[in-house]
Each structure stands twice: as C-alpha cells, then as structure tokens.
Amino acid sequence: MPRKDSGWWDDFFPAFRPFFGLISQKRTNAHVRFIVEKLSLKPGKKFLDCPCGIGRIALPLAKKGIRVTGVDITRSYLDELSMKAKRRGLKVDLVHADMRRITFGSEFDAGGNLWTSFGFFEKESDNRLVLKKMYQALKPGGKFMLHVINRDWIMANYQPRGWEEAAGVKSMEERFFDYRTSINYGTWHIIKDGKEETFKLTIRMYSFHELIAMFESVGFTDIEGYGSMKDEPISRDKGMMTIIGTKPRRG
C-alpha cells in the first residue's frame, strides 16, 4: 500500500539528481548572497531550508555560521547532504518529511522554499498548507523566501517540449498547460545508461498577485517581490520570482 503522502516526487527526484549539476557554482554563490542579505541572516541565526535537496543552499549557509535545518522527502538527497556536511566539518540538522507535514513552531529566524519547489500538489489547499507550515515554523518577525517559476513568463515563452543533458543523463519533457487550473502536466523521459524511465509530473504555476494573496491568507505581511537577484521588479520578462513575507511580531 502506498504511503499517505506518496506522489510523483517519490520516484522522480532520485532520477533527477544529475540535473542539479546544471546550476553553476557562480549562480549558487549569488543566490546565497541574496538570501543572506534579504533575510538578514547572521551567524547563529536559525534557518529552515524546506525542501533542502542535496544542500546546494544549506551547506554554504552553514559554512557562514548559520544554524540550518534541512527538510526533504527524498531520503537519498538527505544522505548525500549528510555526507557532504560531515566531510566539510559542517553541522546541518536534517529531517526526512513531506513539507506539508512539518511540525515546527516559532523556532526559526528565517526560512526558504527555494528553486522551483512549490506548487507540487494538485489540491490548492495542499500548496497553501506548505506556506502555512513555514509560517508556523518562524519566530515572530521571521522572514520566509519563496523562489519559484513565474507563470506569466511561462505563458509568454511556453514550449511543448524541452531537452536537457547532464553527466551523461538525457531528459525530454513533453508538456501540456491547463489554463483552467494553471497546472502544467509534464511527461519526463529520463535516459541513463541506455535505459529509459518515464515520469508524470504536475506543477501548479503562479502569478505574483496569486502568491501575494496566498501569503496574506496564512498571515504574512510586508510582502516583497523580486524578478532577479539584482532587485529588479517582477515582470513577464523574468523567468523566476522571489517572494518574501514577514511573520508579524505579536504584542
């Protein structure tokens, strides 16, 4: 019997691992600097990286003295992150969990859902729950950063197929966009060592105004949006969006 929270991500992300190599170290370094600046992170501050993947962001933050907790549903990613942290003499607390099921309460100075890890669930209530759980995890005054694909850019540049290759692994994605739900249905063909695996994915795409409404619905205030790591505004010319919300201070 499948787990209650099982989904396309269970089999897809282990197969997708080689494609993390397409993100350059230069780009990662710039992203880390942007996160540190916008979330006012300093040594000793607590940061929740959910989901954390293989530690692309978690490890550089830990190196800066930030107390990082990483959450991910993919066990092999956490195992890899753990080994990397140990080799580098870094401490990262790791939790194997679905991002809808985390149970932290007012523990973190900041948190992030980074690099297109939002909108995985066909139920809108589940995607909203991800934001609610991150809100609950923050201390009053804490900030949350969401880094996600810009639906408006996708609509202006939509391609029914895409190809990529990394570390000798090839992928082809066939896409169908449902305008009624703003869900992108993708069929991924990943070929490794001459063997092909096929995965079906669903990603809910969001426009900036929709995310503002979702952030506000769970309690975030002072919501900011950026179309690049150079503080440029969000527009249909920007493929990615960074949304930042603050958990209000009480009393």
Layout of SSEs?
Elements: H1 9-16, H2 25-38, E1 46-49, H3 58-63, E2 67-72, H4 75-88, E3 92-96, E4 108-113, H5 124-137, E5 138-149, H6 151-156, E6 161-166, E7 169-178, E8 183-192, E9 195-204, H7 208-218, E10 221-226, E11 240-246
* Low-confidence sequence ranges: none
Under CATH, the topology can be stated as Rossmann fold
User: Helix/strand/pairing class, anyone?
Assistant: alpha/beta
- Percent strand equals 25-35%
Whole-Å distance between the termini? 47 Å
> Can you identify the CATH superfamily?
Vaccinia Virus protein VP39
Shape assignment: globular
Tally of separate helices: 7
Order of helices and strands: HHEHEHEEHEHEEEEHEE
Number of individual domains: 1
* Cα-based radius of gyration, to the nearest Å: 18 Å
- Can you tell me the CATH class? Alpha Beta
How would you state the average pLDDT, rounded?
A: 96
Short description:
The chain is an alpha/beta fold. It has a single domain, classed as Rossmann fold, CATH 3.40.50.
Describe, in plain words, how this protein is organized in 3D.
This protein has 251 residues and is of the alpha/beta class. The chain is built from 7 helices and 11 strands. The strands form 2 sheets. It has a 7-stranded mixed β-sheet, sandwiched between helices. It has a 4-stranded antiparallel β-sheet with strand order 6-7-8-9, with helices on one face.
